[in-house]
Amino acid sequence: MPLRIANGAGFLGDSLAAPRRLVESCAVEYLTLEYLAELTMSILARAKEKNPALGYAEDWIEVASSLLPALQSQLALRIVTNAGGTNPIACAAATAQVLMQADLGNELIGVVAGDDLLSRLQEIQAAGCALTNLDTGQPLADLTAPIVSANAYLGARPIVDALADGARLVITGRVADASLTLGPAVFHHGWKWDDLDTLAGASIAGHLIECGAQATGGLFNRWDSMNLADVGYPIAEINADGTSLITKPPHTGGAVNRHTVAAQLVYEIGDPAHYITPDVDVDMTVVELEELGSDRVAVRGARGNAATDSYKVSLAYRDGYMSSGQLLVYGRDCVTKARACAEMIRKRLESAGFSIARFHVECLGSGEGVPSLHTMPIDLREVMLRITVHDPNRAAVERFTREIAPLITSGPPGLAGYASGRPAVRPVFAYWPTLVPKELVPTMVEVRRAQEWMNA
Asked: H or E element: which one contains 5?
Protein backbone atom coordinates (compact mmCIF):
# COMPACT_ATOMS: atom_id res chain seq x y z
CA MET A 1 0.00 0.00 0.00
CA PRO A 2 1.28 3.50 -0.75
CA LEU A 3 2.24 5.79 2.11
CA ARG A 4 0.12 8.95 2.22
CA ILE A 5 1.98 12.10 3.27
CA ALA A 6 0.29 15.50 3.27
CA ASN A 7 2.04 18.86 3.58
CA GLY A 8 0.19 21.69 5.29
CA ALA A 9 2.74 24.52 5.21
CA GLY A 10 5.26 25.78 2.68
CA PHE A 11 6.77 28.68 4.64
CA LEU A 12 6.49 30.53 7.94
CA GLY A 13 3.32 32.59 7.51
CA ASP A 14 1.40 30.02 5.46
CA SER A 15 -2.24 29.22 6.18
CA LEU A 16 -2.90 28.35 9.81
CA ALA A 17 -6.07 26.46 8.86
CA ALA A 18 -4.61 24.26 6.11
CA PRO A 19 -3.02 21.56 8.34
CA ARG A 20 -6.22 20.95 10.29
CA ARG A 21 -8.32 20.90 7.13
CA LEU A 22 -5.96 18.38 5.55
CA VAL A 23 -6.17 15.82 8.32
CA GLU A 24 -9.90 16.31 8.84
CA SER A 25 -10.79 15.90 5.17
CA CYS A 26 -8.92 12.68 4.44
CA ALA A 27 -6.81 9.98 6.04
CA VAL A 28 -3.03 10.37 5.86
CA GLU A 29 -0.29 8.61 7.77
CA TYR A 30 1.98 11.67 7.96
CA LEU A 31 1.54 15.41 8.01
CA THR A 32 4.61 17.50 7.20
CA LEU A 33 4.95 21.22 7.84
CA GLU A 34 7.76 23.12 6.14
CA TYR A 35 8.46 26.52 7.69
CA LEU A 36 12.07 27.44 6.95
CA ALA A 37 13.95 29.46 4.34
CA GLU A 38 17.21 31.40 4.44
CA LEU A 39 15.47 34.65 5.41
CA THR A 40 13.35 32.81 7.98
CA MET A 41 16.45 31.42 9.70
CA SER A 42 17.77 34.97 10.09
CA ILE A 43 14.45 36.15 11.52
CA LEU A 44 14.35 33.26 13.98
CA ALA A 45 17.98 33.81 14.96
CA ARG A 46 17.10 37.42 15.73
CA ALA A 47 14.14 36.28 17.85
CA LYS A 48 16.36 33.86 19.80
CA GLU A 49 18.92 36.62 20.29
CA LYS A 50 16.23 38.75 21.96
CA ASN A 51 14.75 35.85 23.95
CA PRO A 52 16.65 32.55 24.38
CA ALA A 53 13.32 30.74 24.81
CA LEU A 54 12.28 31.64 21.24
CA GLY A 55 13.80 31.11 17.81
CA TYR A 56 11.29 28.57 16.51
CA ALA A 57 8.25 28.93 14.24
CA GLU A 58 5.64 30.18 16.69
CA ASP A 59 2.87 29.63 14.12
CA TRP A 60 3.41 25.92 14.74
CA ILE A 61 2.17 26.19 18.32
CA GLU A 62 -1.19 27.53 17.14
CA VAL A 63 -1.30 24.87 14.43
CA ALA A 64 -0.46 22.15 16.97
CA SER A 65 -3.41 23.26 19.11
CA SER A 66 -5.72 22.97 16.10
CA LEU A 67 -4.45 19.44 15.44
CA LEU A 68 -5.19 18.07 18.90
CA PRO A 69 -8.54 16.50 17.93
CA ALA A 70 -6.90 14.73 15.00
CA LEU A 71 -4.06 13.47 17.18
CA GLN A 72 -6.62 12.12 19.64
CA SER A 73 -8.84 10.43 17.05
CA GLN A 74 -6.36 9.39 14.33
CA LEU A 75 -3.96 7.20 16.26
CA ALA A 76 -1.86 6.39 13.19
CA LEU A 77 -1.20 10.05 12.35
CA ARG A 78 2.38 11.28 12.74
CA ILE A 79 3.77 14.78 12.22
CA VAL A 80 7.20 15.84 10.93
CA THR A 81 8.10 19.53 10.91
CA ASN A 82 11.15 21.78 10.81
CA ALA A 83 9.34 24.28 13.04
CA GLY A 84 12.25 23.99 15.48
CA GLY A 85 14.11 26.64 13.49
CA THR A 86 17.12 27.81 15.49
CA ASN A 87 15.78 26.36 18.77
CA PRO A 88 14.19 22.91 18.31
CA ILE A 89 14.43 22.01 22.01
CA ALA A 90 12.46 25.12 23.02
CA CYS A 91 9.96 24.25 20.28
CA ALA A 92 9.58 20.76 21.72
CA ALA A 93 8.94 22.21 25.18
CA ALA A 94 6.27 24.58 23.82
CA THR A 95 4.70 21.73 21.84
CA ALA A 96 4.66 19.58 24.95
CA GLN A 97 2.64 22.21 26.80
CA VAL A 98 0.02 22.06 24.03
CA LEU A 99 -0.14 18.26 24.18
CA MET A 100 -0.44 18.25 27.95
CA GLN A 101 -3.59 20.36 27.69
CA ALA A 102 -5.24 17.49 25.79
CA ASP A 103 -3.98 14.68 28.04
CA LEU A 104 -1.43 13.69 25.42
CA GLY A 105 1.52 13.91 27.76
CA ASN A 106 2.63 10.36 26.97
CA GLU A 107 3.06 11.04 23.26
CA LEU A 108 6.67 10.79 22.13
CA ILE A 109 8.29 13.90 20.66
CA GLY A 110 11.55 13.49 18.76
CA VAL A 111 13.99 16.38 18.37
CA VAL A 112 16.58 16.49 15.61
CA ALA A 113 19.46 18.90 16.22
CA GLY A 114 23.06 19.40 15.17
CA ASP A 115 22.40 21.73 12.26
CA ASP A 116 23.29 24.84 14.32
CA LEU A 117 26.97 25.50 13.65
CA LEU A 118 27.19 29.04 15.04
CA SER A 119 29.26 28.10 18.10
CA ARG A 120 31.43 25.68 16.10
CA LEU A 121 32.64 27.87 13.22
CA GLN A 122 36.17 28.30 14.55
CA GLU A 123 36.40 24.57 15.24
CA ILE A 124 35.24 23.79 11.68
CA GLN A 125 37.75 26.23 10.18
CA ALA A 126 40.53 24.76 12.32
CA ALA A 127 39.64 21.35 10.87
CA GLY A 128 40.54 22.66 7.42
CA CYS A 129 37.16 23.83 6.11
CA ALA A 130 37.40 27.44 4.91
CA LEU A 131 33.61 27.83 4.68
CA THR A 132 34.11 29.51 1.31
CA ASN A 133 31.30 31.70 -0.01
CA LEU A 134 29.82 29.82 -2.96
CA ASP A 135 29.01 33.06 -4.79
CA THR A 136 32.20 35.09 -4.24
CA GLY A 137 34.88 32.49 -3.50
CA GLN A 138 35.90 34.29 -0.31
CA PRO A 139 36.84 32.27 2.79
CA LEU A 140 34.85 33.01 5.91
CA ALA A 141 38.03 34.33 7.52
CA ASP A 142 37.65 37.42 5.31
CA LEU A 143 34.33 38.30 6.89
CA THR A 144 34.64 40.90 9.64
CA ALA A 145 30.93 41.47 10.32
CA PRO A 146 29.25 39.69 13.25
CA ILE A 147 27.72 36.33 12.29
CA VAL A 148 24.11 35.84 13.37
CA SER A 149 23.37 32.25 12.36
CA ALA A 150 24.93 29.28 10.59
CA ASN A 151 22.83 26.20 9.90
CA ALA A 152 23.57 23.08 7.88
CA TYR A 153 20.81 21.54 5.78
CA LEU A 154 20.51 18.11 7.39
CA GLY A 155 18.92 15.19 5.57
CA ALA A 156 16.37 12.47 6.27
CA ARG A 157 18.53 10.07 8.31
CA PRO A 158 17.94 11.62 11.75
CA ILE A 159 14.21 11.83 11.01
CA VAL A 160 14.21 8.09 10.31
CA ASP A 161 16.07 7.51 13.58
CA ALA A 162 13.49 9.54 15.53
CA LEU A 163 10.61 7.64 13.92
CA ALA A 164 12.36 4.33 14.63
CA ASP A 165 12.54 5.34 18.30
CA GLY A 166 8.76 5.72 18.32
CA ALA A 167 8.37 9.49 17.94
CA ARG A 168 4.88 10.54 16.94
CA LEU A 169 5.95 14.13 16.41
CA VAL A 170 9.38 14.92 14.99
CA ILE A 171 10.64 18.48 15.37
CA THR A 172 13.80 19.48 13.53
CA GLY A 173 15.96 22.51 12.99
CA ARG A 174 17.23 23.20 9.47
CA VAL A 175 16.49 20.10 7.43
CA ALA A 176 16.30 20.13 3.64
CA ASP A 177 12.70 20.58 2.51
CA ALA A 178 12.36 17.32 0.57
CA SER A 179 13.91 15.35 3.45
CA LEU A 180 10.81 15.97 5.58
CA THR A 181 8.95 13.65 3.21
CA LEU A 182 11.80 11.28 2.42
CA GLY A 183 12.33 10.43 6.10
CA PRO A 184 8.85 8.96 6.66
CA ALA A 185 9.02 7.16 3.30
CA VAL A 186 12.35 5.50 4.12
CA PHE A 187 11.10 4.48 7.55
CA HIS A 188 7.77 3.15 6.27
CA HIS A 189 9.07 1.24 3.27
CA GLY A 190 12.32 0.07 4.87
CA TRP A 191 14.55 1.39 2.09
CA LYS A 192 18.33 1.30 2.28
CA TRP A 193 20.44 4.41 1.81
CA ASP A 194 21.95 3.00 -1.37
CA ASP A 195 18.51 2.53 -3.01
CA LEU A 196 19.31 5.66 -4.97
CA ASP A 197 16.54 5.62 -7.58
CA THR A 198 13.97 4.95 -4.88
CA LEU A 199 15.33 7.75 -2.70
CA ALA A 200 15.29 10.03 -5.73
CA GLY A 201 11.65 9.25 -6.45
CA ALA A 202 10.52 10.00 -2.91
CA SER A 203 12.67 13.15 -2.84
CA ILE A 204 10.84 14.33 -5.95
CA ALA A 205 7.54 13.73 -4.16
CA GLY A 206 8.85 15.74 -1.22
CA HIS A 207 9.94 18.55 -3.51
CA LEU A 208 6.52 18.61 -5.17
CA ILE A 209 4.59 19.03 -1.92
CA GLU A 210 7.12 21.07 0.10
CA CYS A 211 5.72 24.46 -1.00
CA GLY A 212 2.17 23.68 0.01
CA ALA A 213 -0.47 24.96 -2.39
CA GLN A 214 2.03 25.74 -5.14
CA ALA A 215 1.49 22.16 -6.34
CA THR A 216 -2.29 22.53 -6.26
CA GLY A 217 -2.76 25.75 -8.21
CA GLY A 218 -0.99 28.44 -6.22
CA LEU A 219 1.15 30.75 -8.41
CA PHE A 220 -0.19 28.96 -11.48
CA ASN A 221 -0.63 31.13 -14.57
CA ARG A 222 -4.16 29.81 -15.14
CA TRP A 223 -5.17 30.77 -11.62
CA ASP A 224 -8.44 32.31 -12.83
CA SER A 225 -9.72 28.90 -13.96
CA MET A 226 -9.87 27.52 -10.41
CA ASN A 227 -11.07 28.34 -6.91
CA LEU A 228 -8.02 29.37 -4.90
CA ALA A 229 -10.06 30.81 -2.02
CA ASP A 230 -10.64 27.24 -0.86
CA VAL A 231 -7.43 25.76 -2.25
CA GLY A 232 -6.58 22.24 -1.12
CA TYR A 233 -3.07 21.42 0.03
CA PRO A 234 -1.09 18.55 -1.51
CA ILE A 235 -0.86 14.87 -0.66
CA ALA A 236 1.81 12.50 -1.96
CA GLU A 237 1.03 8.80 -2.16
CA ILE A 238 4.46 7.18 -2.22
CA ASN A 239 4.83 3.59 -3.41
CA ALA A 240 7.39 1.01 -2.34
CA ASP A 241 9.30 1.49 -5.61
CA GLY A 242 9.66 5.25 -5.09
CA THR A 243 7.05 6.28 -7.63
CA SER A 244 4.31 8.53 -6.35
CA LEU A 245 0.97 10.10 -7.02
CA ILE A 246 0.21 13.74 -6.20
CA THR A 247 -3.34 14.64 -5.22
CA LYS A 248 -5.33 16.81 -2.81
CA PRO A 249 -8.36 16.37 -0.55
CA PRO A 250 -11.71 15.95 -2.33
CA HIS A 251 -14.06 18.90 -2.62
CA THR A 252 -11.30 21.49 -2.20
CA GLY A 253 -10.28 24.27 -4.55
CA GLY A 254 -7.28 24.55 -6.78
CA ALA A 255 -6.22 21.76 -9.12
CA VAL A 256 -3.70 18.96 -9.43
CA ASN A 257 -2.89 18.34 -13.07
CA ARG A 258 0.15 17.82 -15.22
CA HIS A 259 0.65 21.57 -15.57
CA THR A 260 0.44 22.51 -11.89
CA VAL A 261 2.73 19.64 -10.90
CA ALA A 262 5.23 20.43 -13.66
CA ALA A 263 5.34 24.07 -12.55
CA GLN A 264 6.31 23.01 -9.04
CA LEU A 265 8.72 20.35 -10.32
CA VAL A 266 11.01 22.98 -11.86
CA TYR A 267 10.64 25.46 -9.00
CA GLU A 268 13.98 26.45 -7.39
CA ILE A 269 15.96 23.45 -8.60
CA GLY A 270 19.08 24.80 -10.31
CA ASP A 271 20.47 22.09 -12.59
CA PRO A 272 17.59 19.67 -13.31
CA ALA A 273 20.09 16.86 -13.89
CA HIS A 274 21.55 17.40 -10.42
CA TYR A 275 18.92 18.41 -7.89
CA ILE A 276 21.22 17.97 -4.89
CA THR A 277 19.75 17.09 -1.52
CA PRO A 278 21.64 15.85 1.55
CA ASP A 279 20.30 12.37 0.83
CA VAL A 280 20.66 11.87 -2.93
CA ASP A 281 21.64 13.66 -6.14
CA VAL A 282 18.44 13.56 -8.22
CA ASP A 283 18.23 13.55 -12.02
CA MET A 284 14.91 15.24 -12.86
CA THR A 285 15.42 15.22 -16.60
CA VAL A 286 13.92 11.74 -16.86
CA VAL A 287 10.90 12.30 -14.60
CA GLU A 288 7.55 11.52 -16.21
CA LEU A 289 4.18 13.01 -15.22
CA GLU A 290 0.90 11.39 -16.15
CA GLU A 291 -2.64 12.41 -15.29
CA LEU A 292 -4.60 9.44 -13.97
CA GLY A 293 -7.88 11.19 -13.45
CA SER A 294 -9.26 14.25 -11.71
CA ASP A 295 -6.62 15.76 -9.39
CA ARG A 296 -4.35 12.72 -9.65
CA VAL A 297 -0.91 12.91 -11.27
CA ALA A 298 1.53 10.00 -11.29
CA VAL A 299 5.23 10.80 -10.93
CA ARG A 300 7.79 8.24 -12.01
CA GLY A 301 11.20 7.75 -13.59
CA ALA A 302 13.47 9.72 -11.24
CA ARG A 303 17.05 8.54 -11.07
CA GLY A 304 19.45 9.02 -8.21
CA ASN A 305 23.19 9.32 -7.82
CA ALA A 306 25.16 9.12 -4.60
CA ALA A 307 24.79 12.10 -2.29
CA THR A 308 27.67 14.54 -1.96
CA ASP A 309 29.97 14.40 1.07
CA SER A 310 29.03 17.90 2.22
CA TYR A 311 26.07 19.78 3.63
CA LYS A 312 24.95 23.14 2.35
CA VAL A 313 25.17 25.78 5.07
CA SER A 314 23.03 28.89 5.31
CA LEU A 315 25.06 31.53 7.16
CA ALA A 316 23.83 35.03 7.93
CA TYR A 317 25.79 38.04 9.15
CA ARG A 318 24.96 41.59 10.18
CA ASP A 319 25.07 44.03 7.29
CA GLY A 320 23.86 47.36 8.61
CA TYR A 321 20.30 48.71 8.66
CA MET A 322 17.50 49.40 6.21
CA SER A 323 14.13 51.07 5.99
CA SER A 324 11.49 51.46 3.33
CA GLY A 325 8.88 54.21 3.11
CA GLN A 326 6.21 55.08 0.59
CA LEU A 327 3.86 57.83 -0.50
CA LEU A 328 0.99 57.91 -2.98
CA VAL A 329 1.68 60.60 -5.59
CA TYR A 330 -1.24 61.85 -7.70
CA GLY A 331 -1.40 64.04 -10.81
CA ARG A 332 -0.68 64.09 -14.55
CA ASP A 333 2.99 64.61 -13.70
CA CYS A 334 2.99 61.98 -10.95
CA VAL A 335 6.20 60.22 -12.02
CA THR A 336 8.15 63.47 -12.38
CA LYS A 337 6.73 64.64 -9.08
CA ALA A 338 7.58 61.36 -7.31
CA ARG A 339 11.19 61.43 -8.50
CA ALA A 340 11.48 65.04 -7.41
CA CYS A 341 10.24 64.05 -3.94
CA ALA A 342 12.90 61.35 -3.74
CA GLU A 343 15.58 63.83 -4.73
CA MET A 344 14.34 66.28 -2.09
CA ILE A 345 14.73 63.60 0.56
CA ARG A 346 18.22 62.75 -0.67
CA LYS A 347 19.34 66.42 -0.58
CA ARG A 348 17.84 66.98 2.87
CA LEU A 349 19.74 63.94 4.16
CA GLU A 350 22.98 65.32 2.68
CA SER A 351 22.29 68.70 4.30
CA ALA A 352 21.93 66.89 7.62
CA GLY A 353 25.32 65.27 7.13
CA PHE A 354 24.23 61.83 5.96
CA SER A 355 25.30 60.12 2.73
CA ILE A 356 23.22 56.94 2.33
CA ALA A 357 25.12 53.92 0.99
CA ARG A 358 22.17 52.55 -0.99
CA PHE A 359 19.20 54.74 -1.95
CA HIS A 360 16.70 52.91 -4.17
CA VAL A 361 13.73 54.72 -5.75
CA GLU A 362 10.71 53.03 -7.35
CA CYS A 363 7.60 54.53 -8.94
CA LEU A 364 5.26 51.58 -8.63
CA GLY A 365 2.48 51.64 -11.20
CA SER A 366 4.66 53.14 -13.90
CA GLY A 367 6.04 49.80 -15.04
CA GLU A 368 8.95 49.58 -12.61
CA GLY A 369 7.57 46.56 -10.79
CA VAL A 370 8.98 44.43 -13.63
CA PRO A 371 11.55 46.75 -15.25
CA SER A 372 11.99 46.71 -19.04
CA LEU A 373 8.99 44.45 -19.63
CA HIS A 374 6.26 47.09 -19.57
CA THR A 375 6.09 50.68 -20.80
CA MET A 376 4.53 53.43 -18.72
CA PRO A 377 0.78 53.90 -19.30
CA ILE A 378 0.00 56.96 -21.43
CA ASP A 379 -2.59 58.54 -19.13
CA LEU A 380 -0.99 57.65 -15.79
CA ARG A 381 -2.46 59.66 -12.90
CA GLU A 382 -0.95 58.06 -9.79
CA VAL A 383 2.05 56.07 -8.64
CA MET A 384 3.28 54.73 -5.35
CA LEU A 385 6.67 56.22 -4.56
CA ARG A 386 8.73 53.71 -2.60
CA ILE A 387 12.17 54.56 -1.31
CA THR A 388 14.35 51.92 0.32
CA VAL A 389 17.63 52.77 2.01
CA HIS A 390 20.47 50.66 3.40
CA ASP A 391 23.44 51.92 5.38
CA PRO A 392 25.91 50.66 8.00
CA ASN A 393 25.02 53.66 10.17
CA ARG A 394 21.70 53.27 11.99
CA ALA A 395 21.55 57.04 12.60
CA ALA A 396 21.56 57.68 8.84
CA VAL A 397 18.63 55.31 8.32
CA GLU A 398 16.79 56.80 11.30
CA ARG A 399 17.14 60.23 9.78
CA PHE A 400 15.71 58.97 6.48
CA THR A 401 12.55 57.83 8.27
CA ARG A 402 12.08 61.41 9.54
CA GLU A 403 12.33 63.03 6.11
CA ILE A 404 9.23 61.54 4.45
CA ALA A 405 6.40 63.18 6.40
CA PRO A 406 7.75 66.75 6.00
CA LEU A 407 7.06 66.49 2.26
CA ILE A 408 3.35 66.68 3.00
CA THR A 409 3.59 70.43 3.62
CA SER A 410 7.01 71.21 2.16
CA GLY A 411 6.78 69.27 -1.09
CA PRO A 412 4.57 69.34 -4.19
CA PRO A 413 0.79 68.89 -4.02
CA GLY A 414 -0.93 65.55 -4.52
CA LEU A 415 0.78 63.44 -1.84
CA ALA A 416 -1.07 60.97 0.38
CA GLY A 417 -0.55 57.78 2.34
CA TYR A 418 1.48 59.23 5.20
CA ALA A 419 -0.93 58.51 8.05
CA SER A 420 0.71 55.23 9.04
CA GLY A 421 3.65 57.08 10.58
CA ARG A 422 7.38 56.77 10.14
CA PRO A 423 8.67 53.54 8.63
CA ALA A 424 10.56 51.12 10.87
CA VAL A 425 14.32 50.71 10.94
CA ARG A 426 15.35 47.06 10.66
CA PRO A 427 18.70 45.28 10.90
CA VAL A 428 19.92 43.66 7.68
CA PHE A 429 21.19 40.09 7.68
CA ALA A 430 23.22 39.24 4.59
CA TYR A 431 23.52 35.72 3.20
CA TRP A 432 26.73 33.68 3.00
CA PRO A 433 26.11 30.32 1.28
CA THR A 434 28.79 27.70 1.88
CA LEU A 435 29.50 23.99 2.31
CA VAL A 436 30.76 21.91 5.22
CA PRO A 437 31.94 18.27 5.17
CA LYS A 438 29.28 15.97 6.61
CA GLU A 439 31.89 14.35 8.83
CA LEU A 440 32.16 17.64 10.75
CA VAL A 441 28.42 17.82 11.49
CA PRO A 442 27.28 15.21 14.01
CA THR A 443 23.51 15.10 14.43
CA MET A 444 21.58 14.60 17.65
CA VAL A 445 18.29 12.74 17.95
CA GLU A 446 16.45 12.67 21.26
CA VAL A 447 13.02 11.19 21.85
CA ARG A 448 11.08 11.87 25.05
CA ARG A 449 7.51 11.82 26.21
CA ALA A 450 5.83 15.20 25.98
CA GLN A 451 5.67 15.55 29.74
CA GLU A 452 9.44 15.04 29.89
CA TRP A 453 10.07 17.90 27.45
CA MET A 454 8.15 20.37 29.59
CA ASN A 455 11.19 21.63 31.46
CA ALA A 456 13.74 21.19 28.69
From this structure: strand 3-7
